[in-house]
Write a structure and sequence with these properties.
2 domains; alpha+beta
Length: about 110
């Protein structure tokens, strides 16, 4: 995705991500790296206004993450640029100010 010309920069980026993960969570057996490619809506961001038509383009930016399985029902994460820890307890999905939408991912 990045091309040979960005190999050194991207290698350093993923290395830093792994180091940050280990700083917060320690070494986790079986941790995995993830990348979500960036995109930009050129037209039709709100599908309800455009009868379901969207024109999107891929961009050479992405969001990366590292994650590991846990044995409990708690999701703990840190995000670069934010100076706090986020904790979501999946056994208590009552809405709280500032929370996301974890309840929508509950398996019925």
């Amino acid at each position: 995705m990045y091309g040979q010309q960005q190999l050194e920069e991207q290698t350093a980026r993923y290395t830093q991500l792994n180091e940050s993960f280990e700083q917060y969570f320690g070494v986790q057996e079986g941790s995995k790296l993830f990348s979500a490619a960036g995109r930009s809506e050129i037209w039709g961001n709100h599908m309800d206004h455009n009868h379901g038509k969207v024109l999107a383009g891929s961009i050479t930016l992405d969001t990366i993450a590292v994650a590991a399985l846990t044995t409990d029902s708690v999701i703990t994460f840190y995000s670069e640029g934010y100076d706090q820890k986020y904790v979501i307890d999946l056994t208590d999905l009552t809405p709280k100010a500032g929370d996301g939408m974890a309840a929508g991912f509950r398996v019925c």
